[in-house]
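quick one before i forget lol
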Amino acid sequence: MSEALAQDSWQRACRSGTVWPWPYRFAVISNFPASIASSLLLWPLSFVWPKVPESVEAVLALLLVLILWYWVGLQLDRRWRVKDKSPWFALSSFALLSMGGAFLRIGHVDFLPYGFVLWVSTALSISHFTRVCSGIPRSAPGPFGGERVWHRPRTEGERG
């Protein structure tokens, strides 16, 4: 079998949903919001540009993955202090659950609902079991030497 024919067969099998290798499943599950956003952004583009190169799809998906995990990192930084080990446990558990979902043989595209349920349950459990903390004490100096104010300034009537 020639190399071009084998590659064409592989691409047809992947696009028809017959074969999704576990690394692809892991990437989609662990980056589910970025994958869905990328698909939704590429959908109208496919009407204008029917044969969108995979490189364009990959660049958009990677950009959205960077934005997603930057936002996740900001949320974790707001909820835990640097000394806590809880975010590392949460991220490790999330990665293991994503890996477990990648190896499940439920169906051809059942890793998509699994990724949705994993992300929603993780977000709800983190928001329910943690509190938001700034990690910066109120008396910390501001960037120009003054005192940082993290609360609404009191009025004259409230001070007394």
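fyi The longest helix spans residues 54-79.
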